[in-house]
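Is this the right way to post C-alpha cells for a design question? Let me know if I should format differently. Anyway, here goes:
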C-alpha cells in the first residue's frame, strides 16, 4: 500500500507546531515554536498575543518542517489541523491556514479534536498500541478519563467538575512565586521536599474529579503561612493530586476490565505521576503507556496521527470547517 503522508497543524494555545507523519505513526518532523517566553511575563497565556504570534509564525514553521523532512508541498497527502477545543483566535489561524493549504494542494482536509490528538501521541511512541484502552488525559485545559473504543470512538468515564489539573498546577505555582508554566517548576521543586502537609482530596460517587478545593487550600495556606516550606508544599500538592488521579483510574480499570492504560497531555510529563502510574501498572499487572516528554505537551505530530486515523475512518472535513473553542471529546 502507498505510504500516506499527513501534515499536521497545531495552534490551539501558545505553541505553533507543524509536523509531518508517515502512516499515522512515523514522525518525519515535529517542529514546535513555543511562545512561553512571551506569555511568561504576564503569568499566563494572553489570547490576543497568542493569535498574533501564530499568524507571524505559521508559514515559516510549515516551510521549516518541509525542509527538515526533505519534502515539498506536493508530497503531502492529507492536511490535518486542530479545530478545538482551545482559544478561538489561536485555533482560527491553524484552521484558516490548513484550509488554504488543502484547497491549494487539492488534498483532503481533516479537522482534529485536540484532546483526541493528545491520546494519539501514544500511537507514535508505541507501535504495538491499539485500542481498546483506557486513557487519562491530564493537561492545562482538560482532565478526562476516557475509554478509547477504537481510533475514532471515545467514551468519557469521568472528568473534572471545575479546574483542570494543569490549571491548578499553574495557579499554585504562580502564588508561590514560580514562573509560568508552573507544572514543570513544581515537578522540580517537589523533589527537594517531603509530602508532609495534609491537603484536602475530593472524591465523588462516580469517576469525576475536582481540583478547585485543593487549589484553594494551598492558596490559603500560603497566605496564612508565608514562610511555609515551598518544596514540602509542592511535594504534598503533587501527592494529593496524584492520589485522586490514581483512585479514579484504578476504579475505571476494574469497571472496564481493561488490560492497558495510557496517560496523555502536558501534566503526564510529571515525573511523580509517571512513577506512581508505573507502580499502579505493576500492582494490577497491566501495561501503562506514557508518551515521551516532547509528545506530552502540545505538538502537531499527535494531531497528524489523529488526523490520519480520522481520514482512514472516512472522517474528512469540508472547507467550511470552523474553530470550535469548546469542542467535546468524541464530538464531530
Ligand atoms: O497539554 P498541554 O501542553 O496544553 C493543553 O492542552 O492544556 O498542557 C500544559 C499543562 C500546563 O498546565 C503545564 O503546567 C503542565 O501541562 N505541565 C506539567 C509538567 N509539564 C507540563 N505539569 C506537571 N508536571 C510537569 N512536569
Ligand atoms: Zn494540549
Amino acid at each position: 500500500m502507498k505510504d500516506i503522508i499527513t501534515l499536521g497543524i497545531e495552534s490551539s494555545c501558545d505553541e505553533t507546531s507543524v509536523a509531518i507523519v508517515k502512516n499515522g505513526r512515523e514522525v518525519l518532523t515535529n517542529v514546535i515554536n513555543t511562545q512561553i517566553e512571551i506569555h511568561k511575563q504576564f503569568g499566563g497565556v494572553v489570547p490576543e498575543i497568542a493569535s498574533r504570534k501564530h499568524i507571524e509564525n505559521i508559514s515559516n514553521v510549515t516551510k521549516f518542517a518541509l525542509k527538515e523532512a526533505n519534502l515539498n508541498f506536493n508530497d503531502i497527502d492529507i492536511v490535518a489541523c486542530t479545530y478545538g477545543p482551545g482559544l478561538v483566535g489561536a485555533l482560527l489561524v491553524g484552521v484558516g491556514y490548513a484550509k488554504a493549504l488543502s484547497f491549494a494542494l487539492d488534498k483532503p482536509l481533516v479537522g482534529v479534536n485536540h484532546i483526541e490528538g493528545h491520546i494519539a501521541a501514544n500511537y507514535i511512541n508505541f507501535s504495538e498500541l491499539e485500542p481498546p484502552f483506557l486513557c487519562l488525559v491530564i493537561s492545562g485545559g482538560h482532565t478526562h478519563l476516557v475509554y478509547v473504543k477504537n481510533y475514532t470512538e471515545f467514551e468519557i468515564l469521568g472528568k473534572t467538575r471545575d479546574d483542570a489539573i494543569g490549571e491548578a498546577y499553574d495557579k499554585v505555582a504562580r502564588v508561590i512565586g514560580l514562573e509560568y508554566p508552573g507544572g514543570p517548576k513544581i515537578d522540580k521543586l517537589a523533589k527537594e521536599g517531603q509530602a508532609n502537609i495534609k491537603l484536602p482530596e475530593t472524591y465523588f460517587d462516580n469517576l469525576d474529579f475536582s481540583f478547585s478545593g485543593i487549589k484553594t487550600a494551598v492558596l490559603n495556606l500560603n497566605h496564612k503561612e508565608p514562610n511555609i516550606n515551598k518544596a514540602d508544599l509542592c511535594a504534598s500538592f503533587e501527592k494529593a493530586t496524584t492520589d485522586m488521579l490514581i483512585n479514579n483510574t484504578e476504579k475505571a480499570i476494574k469497571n472496564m476490565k481493561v488490560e492497558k492504560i495510557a496517560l496523555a497531555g502536558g501534566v503526564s510529563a510529571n515525573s511523580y505521576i509517571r512513577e506512581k502510574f508505573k507502580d499502579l501498572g505493576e500492582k494490577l499487572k497491566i501495561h501503562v503507556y506514557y508518551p515521551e516528554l516532547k509528545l506530552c505537551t502540545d505538538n502537531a505530530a499527535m494531531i497528524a496521527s489523529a488526523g490520519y486515523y480520522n481520514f482512514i475512518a472516512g472522517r474528512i472535513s469540508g472547507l467550511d470547517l470552523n474553530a470550535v473553542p469548546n469542542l467535546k471529546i468524541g464530538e464531530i
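Format looks fine. Someone answered above. Worth noting: The mean pLDDT is 97. The chain has two domains: 5-120+295-312, 131-291.
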